[in-house]
Amino acid sequence: MNSKNKKIVLHQMWTTKSLVFMIFMLFLSAGMFAQGKKLVTGTVYDNTGTVLPGASVIESGTRNATTTDFDGKFNLEVAVGGSIEVSFIGSTTQKVQITAASSKLEVRLQNDGYQLAEVQVVSVGYGTQKKSDLTGAISTVTADNLVKGTISSTEQVLQGKVAGLNIIRPSGDPAAGATLRLRGGTSLTASNSPLIVVDGIAGVDINVVQPADIKSIDVLKDASATAIYGSRGANGVIIITTKSGTKGVSVVYSGLSSVGYVADNLDLLSANQWRGYVRQTGNMDAVDYGGNTNWQKAIEQTAISQSHTLSINSGKVDSGFRASIAYLNNEGVIKKSGLERISGNVSAYQYLGDNKDVKFDMGLFANIDKWHPIDYRIFERAYNLNPTIPVYDANGNFTSVGGNIYENPVEILTNRTVDNERHRLLGYFKTEVKFLNDFQAVANISLEHNAVAGGTYKPTYAIMEGRTEVGYAQRTYAEYTNAQGELYVNYSKVFGKHSVSALAGYSYLENIYQGFGAQRSGFVSDAFGYNNLGAGYNYRLGDVYSYKGKSNLVSFYARANYNYDGKYLLTATVRRDGSSRFGENNKWGTFPSASAAWKISNEDFMSGTKDWLGSLKLRVGYGVTGNQDGIGEYKSLSILGVGNDSYYDPVTGTWSLAYSPKQNPNPDLKWESTRQINVGIDFGLFDRITGSFEWYQKNTDDLLYTYEVPQPPYLVGTMLANVGEMSNKGVELTLNADIVRGDKFTWNANLTLGHNIQKIEKLSNPTYKTDVIYSGSLHGLAGMSGQYSQVIAEGYPVGTFWGFRNAGLDENGKIQYYNAAGNVVAESALVDADKTDLGNIQPDLTMGIGMNFTYGNFDLGITGYGMFGQKALNATNMMLNDPTRLPSYNVPDDFLGSGITSSPKYSDYWIEDASFFRLQTLSVGYTMPLGFKNSKLRMYIMGENLAVFTKYKGVDPEIGLNAQDGVDQTGLASPGIDKYNNYPRPTTISVGLNFTLNN
Question: Structure pTM?
Answer without folding.
Answer: 0.87
